[in-house]
């Protein structure tokens, strides 16, 4: 098991101008720096890989999915943009040696509405067909796709692991699995441990944060059960602290972050990492 931190803890968007974050994360003790790729043109993957190698830290890839990157949209131009974007992320993952591209890539984040059954059926068909196509492209580069269930306020498509298992079975590709996030799971799952066990060998990435999206361990989550469930399924992948900073208004508004969640972002990262290493 390796411990990582999301770029969102400090910066948004990650770019060539924030490259010092790689060294900073390594100095804090992290094995992995997971880039939330908001704008693929904001950094040069070859340059970032060179700097990451110098710092001695692994770079993994997570996506950001706005309305114009929606592979299940009724608008073909948005489906096309989403497909192009995810293929770009797969290419980036190949450069970095990231084992996965992660995120809620099945639909636009924030797309939560009372859709008709006809709309849902059509949306699901688009998502399944397009994810199957992307899985084939990713397989040629040895990359996995880790789909993230989100809470009900952020998507109406995929909220629970049980729903995710049904979707994965329908897609039918071994390199498509889960990114599970304790923040979303705390809202949607009856039992975090049972949900992790249900994901089993299909768990490709794991985001760890508190129930308020802050420091892991400073919360009401049952980390003993989370740890036991991860051991039960033999999970040995990335455990990434994903939180956000109120210093960047746009990202804070997007995730409804109205107050600081720690004394500082470094404190959140350091205290969270210490807790995770001791408990996982």
Quick description:
This protein is α/β, with parallel strands linked by helices and 280 residues long. The chain has a single domain, classed as Alpha-Beta Barrel (TIM Barrel), CATH 3.20.20.150.
Give a written overview of the molecule.
By secondary structure, the protein is an alpha/beta fold. The protein has one domain: Alpha-Beta Barrel (TIM Barrel). It is 43% helix and 15% strand. β2 (32-37), α2 (45-55) and β3 form a beta-alpha-beta unit. The model has no long low-confidence stretch (mean pLDDT 97).
Order of helices and strands: EHEHEHEHEHEHHEHEHH
Roughly how many Å is the radius of gyration?
17 Å
The average pLDDT is 97
What is the CATH top level name?
Alpha Beta
Give the fraction of residues assigned to helices.
40-55%
Report the portion of residues in β strands: 5-15%
For the record, give the distance between the C-alpha atoms at the N and C termini, rounded to a whole number: 9 Å
CATH topology: TIM Barrel
Determine the structural class based on helices, strands and strand pairing.
alpha/beta
CATH A-level architecture: Alpha-Beta Barrel
CATH superfamily, please?
Divalent-metal-dependent TIM barrel enzymes
Task: Summarize the main sheet.
Answer: 8 strands, parallel, barrel
InterPro entries: Sugar_Epim/Isomerase, Xyl_isomerase-like_sf, Xyl_isomerase-like_TIM-brl
GO molecular function, one term: isomerase activity
Keywords: Isomerase
Protein name: Sugar phosphate isomerase/epimerase
């Amino acid at each position: 098991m390796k411990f990582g931190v999301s770029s969102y803890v400090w910066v948004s968007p990650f770019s060539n101008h924030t490259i010092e974050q790689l060294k900073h994360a390594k100095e804090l003790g992290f094995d992995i720096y997971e880039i939330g790729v908001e704008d693929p043109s904001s950094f040069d993957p070859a340059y970032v890989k060179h700097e990451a190698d110098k710092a001695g830290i692994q770079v993994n890839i997570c996506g950001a999915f706005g309305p114009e990157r929606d592979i299940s949209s009724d608008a073909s131009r948005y489906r096309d943009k989403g497909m192009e974007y995810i293929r770009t992320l797969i290419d980036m993952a190949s450069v970095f040696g990231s084992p996965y591209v992660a995120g809620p890539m099945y639909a636009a984040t924030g797309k939560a509405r009372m859709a008709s059954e006809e709309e849902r059926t059509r949306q699901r068909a688009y998502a399944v067909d397009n994810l199957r196509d992307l899985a084939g492209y990713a397989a040629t580069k040895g990359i996995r796709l880790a789909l993230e269930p989100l809470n009900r306020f952020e998507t109406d498509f995929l909220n629970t692991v049980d729903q995710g298992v049904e979707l994965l079975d329908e897609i039918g590709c071994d390199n498509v699995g889960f990114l599970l996030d304790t923040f979303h799971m705390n809202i949607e799952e009856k039992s975090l441990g049972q949900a992790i066990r249900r994901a089993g060998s299909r768990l490709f990435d794991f985001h760890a944060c508190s129930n308020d999206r802050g420091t892991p361990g400073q919360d009401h989550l049952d980390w003993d059960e989370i740890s036991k469930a991860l051991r039960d399924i033999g999970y040995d992948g990335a455990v990434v602290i994903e939180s956000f900073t109120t210093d960047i208004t746009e990202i804070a508004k997007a995730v409804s972050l109205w107050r600081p969640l720690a004394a500082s972002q470094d404190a959140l990262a350091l205290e969270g990492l210490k807790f995770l290493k001791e408990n996982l």
